[in-house]
Amino acid sequence: MFFSGINKVIVSLASICISTTFAQSGTDCVFYHSGVGEQYNSTSSTIVYGNGAPIEVPCLGTSFKLDFYIDDTVNALFSISPSKDPNSSLAIVGRAGGKSGDWQFSSSLDSPISIPNSSSGSALVSVSFESNGVQLLRNGEIIATVASQDLRLSSFNLSDGYYIFFSSESPGITVSSFKISCFGGNGCPDYLPSIDQPEVSLDSTNSPDVASNSNFKSNGEVTTVDCSETSSIDPFYIDSRHKPRNYNLDAPLLIPCSSSSFSASFQVNSDSDIGIAFTDDGGLYNGNKSFEAQIGLFSGISYARLGFYTNKRSEKRQVSKRYVASSIGITFFNSELKIFRDGAIVIKYLLKDFDISKIFISPNSGILYVYGGSITCSSADFCRVNPPIPCSVVRLLPDQTYVSTTAKVYNSTNSFNYGCHGTDFSFSADVTATSDLYVFIATAGGFSDVFSEIRYGIQSGVNVVNYVSNFISASSLNAQTGPAKSVSIGFRYVGGTLSMTINGSQVGSRVFGNWAPIRFNVSPLNGYAILTNRQFTCLNQIQGC
């Protein structure tokens, strides 16, 4: 049997697609996933894949490429199948031996082909499907090829979908920064109507107002509006495991519109059904009516209710062991609210004389991730007048837990992207951690551009603002881990200087000069960190602050 001798098997998909925002250039598009983690161990000699939640390749064509990272502590096993059976006779199977150095690649489960001159260590693993066959690459270098005749490519290409399964010979996170690239003129899927196209004639026969609305063409496209404006939605998550339908009252999505018309789109990933509440400027508990919709990610049941909101409502606690990703779209035109899920209308409601100023989102009973979103107004407030930009803007962020093994985890699931007027900002949080804490601050270029990594010596006492990565050897891991300790941390970037604080006292700084970072990641190392009371502030947004 392929990979006989495996003593630890099974995998589960951590299917938190942290950016179904897809990068599209020419005929290519790219989809990002957070990675894959192993949940269980087994002593069986048979590979057991996590076939309950495979990664489905979103490409429409048959030419695509997979990329993911492994570190030197694991051997990752994978199957790429034209069906939901990882043991299909048409599947391509492989081993990426980050720990053992044994790399294998084959078109048959029973005939493993070991790759000579392989090596262990962290690596970028790529599998490229093209018309002439399939290639396995390590750090961009082709190390194995399965020709089309060996692959039975003609049978493989008859599939309506392709699925990726993982298993592992080691516990813990096995692969990270998972990416799927589609190729070919028709390879990119048609997604939910974008903010420029809040409706693409999904039910035009039942919506005569669409054609009569002066902002729409007859085919549903939005015509150019001089004062249209888009506001991005920063990634966030909500936890309702302990409090059903836990709307974050401190951080609603604000509708920055002077007119009553807007559209919104965002990606969600949740392990339960989700709720979306629409209110006026007073929020949920101001005594005015609110409109609340349930989107049935798991139940398949979507419904809406208009009335006075109360937190005494009970929701059925329907939590799944897997996550479901969906695209959510919202349009509000001519007093009609429509909510789309993956391009299909699931809610349609006429809201006469109803002011929508805030949107609240929550899972019913699990965890919800929201990302890749934006809100568009037909006429934004500052198109008519120029409202003053405040000196500072404070954003309260939900609590978050970070976990890592022997490598720092900087990926899209724990990335915070921000957009301030100017470059100055600050961040603060209360931390309970079993290791030192690391913060990666960067521009859009990431590690390939100017960046900084802050090390908070919560366990080791080593505090530094660095302009390179803080390298920690395997022998030094234990020196920066220990029983959980609690501190308050902060960092701020003002006037080209990045400084860090612990318990209110500055413990490090570095001058960067003309630098404009837009994101940061947080990670422990060989431990966990719980961050509460997180607060991000844009500073000095205008002159004279």
Structure, explained:
The chain has 545 residues and is mostly beta strands. It has three domains: 12-182, Exo-inulinase, domain 1 (Jelly Rolls), CATH 2.60.120; 204-385, Sandwich (Jelly Rolls); 395-538, Exo-inulinase, domain 1 (Jelly Rolls, Sandwich), CATH 2.60.120. It is 3% helix and 45% strand. It contains four helices and 37 strands. Strands 1, 2, 3, 5, 9, 10, 11 and 13 form an eight-stranded antiparallel beta sheet that branches. Strands 14, 15, 17, 21, 22, 23 and 25 form a seven-stranded antiparallel beta sheet that branches. The protein starts with 11 loop residues before the first strand and ends in a 7-residue tail after the last strand. Mean pLDDT is 73; it is low at 1-27, 38-44, 190-228 and 380-387.
Task: Summarize this entry quickly.
The chain has 545 residues and is mainly beta. The protein contains 4 helices and 37 strands. It folds into 3 domains: 12-182, Sandwich (Jelly Rolls); 204-385, Jelly Rolls, CATH 2.60.120.200; 395-538, Exo-inulinase, domain 1 (Jelly Rolls).
Question: Which descriptors apply to this entry?
Answer:
Jelly Rolls, disordered N terminus, 37 strands, mainly beta, signal, 3 domains, 3% helix, eight-stranded antiparallel β-sheet, 4 helices, globular, 545 residues, seven-stranded antiparallel β-sheet
For this structure, what is the CATH class of the largest domain? Answer: Mainly Beta
How many strands?
Answer: 37
| CATH third-tier fold name of the largest domain | Jelly Rolls
> Averaged pLDDT, please?
73
Helix content: under 10%
Keywords: Signal
Signal peptide: 1-23
